[in-house]
Amino acid sequence: MNISKREQRVLHVLAQGGAIHFERLPSGKVQDVTCITRDGHVLSDCSLDLFDRLRKRRFIKSTGGRPYRVTRLGITCVRAQMDNR
Description:
The protein is α+β, with helices and mostly antiparallel strands. The chain has a single domain (5-77), classed as Arc Repressor Mutant, subunit A, CATH 1.10.10. It has helices at 5-15, 48-56, 72-77, and strands spanning 19-24, 30-36, 42-43, 60-61, 69-70. Strands 1-2-3 form a three-stranded antiparallel sheet. It has a two-stranded antiparallel sheet with strand order 4-5. It is globular. It starts with a helix and ends in an 8-residue tail after the last helix. This is UPF0386 protein H9Q16_10055. Belongs to the UPF0386 family. InterPro entries: YjhX_toxin.
């Protein structure tokens, strides 16, 4: 599946234990998203458009009002990357 570099970067952060926190409007639509790494840093590449593409492809999922996490499909679609630790 073709995934852009920005989508790869966000999915890689989520696969390592990060989460996408969101704010909703009173109508229920997602207004703002923030991608948080497992270390607590904010990833600036995650935008609302990117969030919608990942959600539409079912790479991320939220259950019970919790932050969005990567799904099994999202983990299988992300390419392996070296972790610079």
